Amino acid sequence: MIKIEHVSFSYAKGYAALKDVSFTAEPGEGILLCGESGCGKTTVTKLINGLIPAFTEGCALTGKVTADGLTVAKTPLYELAKRIGSVFQNPKSQFFNLDSDSELAFGLENEGMAPAEIQSRIKETVLSLRIQNLLGRDIFSMSGGEKQTLAFASVYAMRPRIFVLDEPSANLDSGAMERLHDQIALLKAGGHTILIAEHRLAFLMDLIDRAVYMKDGQIQNIFTVGEFRALTEQQRIQMGLRTLLPVEVELPAAREAGNRQGLSVEDLTCAFGKKSPVIGKLSFSAVPGEVLAVTGPNGVGKTTLTRCLCGLLNEKAGTVRLNGKPLRAKERQRAAFCVMQDVNHQLFSDSVWNECGMSDSGAAPEQIEAVLAQLQLLSFRENHPMALSGGQKQRLAVATAMLSHKKMLIFDEPTSGLDYARMLSVARVVRDLAKQGHIVLVVSHDHEFLQCACDRVLTLV
Amino acid sequence: MKQIQKDRYLDPRMGALLLVLANVAAFSQKSFAVELSWIIYLTLLTTLYGCWIMALKWLTAFAAVLLIQWYVLPASPMVIATSFSIFANYARRMFPCLIVGMLMVKRTPLRNLIVGMRMLHIPQKLIIAISVTLRYFPAIREELGYIRDAMKLRNIHGAEKVECLAVPMIVSAAGTAEELSAAAVTRGIENPVRKTSAVQLRLGAVDALALTAGIAFTAAAFVIK
């Protein structure tokens, strides 16, 4: 079904992304591609859906890839599209229409299918994936999980034989991950061949037949699912893989409101316009030195809470106190900072050093140097922020907050799409900040991360 | 949850024609009666398509411009009167076009617009460019929201703001463009076969009536001086 023979590949920049990769996927087989970030997982998925070589300029490819009887390199992408369906990582950038119905029809319309048949295909897709709730919707009003489901459904409607999924869970909460699990199970039951590159592994354990472990562009090992599950914790950690077992967050509940030290939220209510409140009468507190996890399903108001605590949104009722003193929204903007999920939104300058210099506190050079050194960014001081890695960008955002003497730091989904080592390093940053006396909140769906980075948990319902 | 109403879509071809007619009429008519009846007709049409609040807003705005032109400007000092009378005059003439344009934005889904363009044999490459551009506007609005939040937390104000918008916007646009095209080609957008559409556009009786009236008004604009 899928056959990769002695493939070596390098991108235009020259470094070898894949070195002599070979493996076969039988029809109906579920194959996991795993390994640290940059190990070549995504590159392998592109070999199969044809984005390599057709969509990648100036690359060097040797070896042969066949999928569903087609030689990928010699088949036009639109022919491959009929047999190989691709779902990508970012739910935001996978749709072309503004409404969900059009999106479901998109692939079929491209194939030139008769309108009546398109309608019946869509009907069938909606039934089998149970997505009636997604019909007739404005896509920009949908949650990330819903968007990802829609992307999946619109590929499913094309009925490809092979599915290639590139980190489909990177931006999903646990509810949406369960849905993704069920969708993949449906593919499996339907006899589709599935290739899935992922960091979060636990939810896939009953769906895969084999796991391909890659390192530095090479296949290190191919495990049967039995062998893979039998890996000891130590081996798993050594391989740099995320947990294979589901993790429950078992942390003590958030402290009650009324603490004189740190953040105390009392009967906080947030609402948009005259609509019913998103957050109603919420009370808790967070003290310096502890990391507080904030979890809950999508749409429960985590983002609203974050924006309100940072003073970007006015509360309808209730009080937010810092060290006993009630703060208005404007004052909270000075006292709090949010490291956004997409940290690209908050870096503005042309070098790491200038980014820090922008802080309104007018920090002295020695101070900037000290903060950068502490966050392991000093050697990058002349680099452009956009040339940094994801983790470095996060730390740079943290640096700007520290230089503005912000007391409260909120991290919004800081580990989406991160491998084990990178997750640990975020956990370390979070812990260090708390130790230095910051009030740290972490909004996340990533249970494994929350369990190792946080001290207490606030579960919104 | 925003539901898109199934009925009362403005056919894109009809919208485009109305737009042309409104343009021609607006800049050739010289009679107030014709102008006023155009405006009333278009606001009625807007109401027919279910946007009566919008219709009301347009009428109010039009009345406001008239008031300014007839009562406020004559009573104002010379400098203001001369510098704003041209502006008011042209603003008034723009009204029909603005109303039709707004109606199209509200009542022609992107998908119908694409089908309409295909039926008019507009080249596929142009259609893709237009549709991706239109899809990108709401995305930009979303991005701007995040960036504005980020700037508030960094205490960035005034002229610096504009400069600071550029970097994140460009970075995100570049990323989106690449991801979007990868998703597009893996769903067969390059397929050379004639693309079909799950929705069919049919010009109904209402459309025909509306169009006839539009043509009549345009003709009147030339005849009645």
Structure characterization notes:
Chain B: It is a multi-pass membrane protein. Chain B: Keywords: Cell membrane, Membrane, Transmembrane, Transmembrane helix. Chain B: It holds the Pfam family CbiQ. The complex is a heterodimer of chains A (461) and B (225). Chain A is α/β, with parallel strands linked by helices. Chain A is built from 16 helices and 19 strands. Chain A has helices at 41-49, 51-54, 77-83, 100-111, 115-129, 144-156, 174-189, 225-229, 233-238, 302-309, 329-335, 352-357, 365-374, 390-403, 420-435, 447-453, and strands spanning 2-10, 16-25, 30-34, 60-67, 70-71, 84-87, 162-166, 193-197, 210-215, 218-224, 263-270, 279-286, 291-295, 317-322, 325-326, 336-339, 408-412, 439-443, 456-459. The model of chain A has no long low-confidence stretch (mean pLDDT 93). The longest helix of chain B has 30 residues, at 78-107. The termini of chain B are far apart. In chain B, helix 2 packs parallel to helix 4 and helix 2 runs antiparallel to helix 8. Chain B is flat, with a radius of gyration of 22 Å. Mean pLDDT of chain B is 85; it is low at 1-6. Chains A and B meet through helix 3, strand 6, helix 4, helix 5 and helix 6 of A and helix 6 and helix 7 of B.
